[in-house]
Design goal:
The protein is mostly helical. It has two domains: about 70 residues; about 30 residues. It has two helices and no strands. The radius of gyration is 40 Å and the shape is elongated.
Length: about 100
């Protein structure tokens, strides 16, 4: 049979164990909160980077469009059409010759 002293010691020990469990739970919660916050921060940094990259891409595209529109100002449409028609007729002629070769 347990003495009064033994029962007291057991009660103290079970209270200590309970306190340790509670402390452990609080530590785990704090750790999880911190991990969650770090993930959030990391995600925000990534989103910021993506946003910046998209802005850079937009600016680059605008600059390319401006450059190409400057180039087209010096560009003669009639000349282009003439060249395109010549190219098309050359292409047709080559296809016609290729067909003749196949048939022979």
């Amino acid at each position: 049979k347990l003495t009064m002293f033994d029962q007291n010691q057991e009660l103290k020990a079970s209270r200590q164990i309970q306190k340790m469990k509670e402390n452990q739970m609080h530590l785990n919660q704090a750790l999880n909160n911190r991990r969650r916050q770090e993930m959030k921060n990391s995600m925000n940094k990534t989103m910021d980077r993506i946003h910046l990259l998209n802005q850079i891409k937009e600016i680059t595209n605008k600059e390319q469009i401006q450059v190409s529109s400057k180039n087209t100002k010096n560009f003669d449409t009639q000349e282009y059409l003439k060249n395109a028609m010549q190219f098309k007729s050359k292409e047709k002629e080559l296809q016609r010759q290729a067909k003749i070769r196949e048939e022979q």
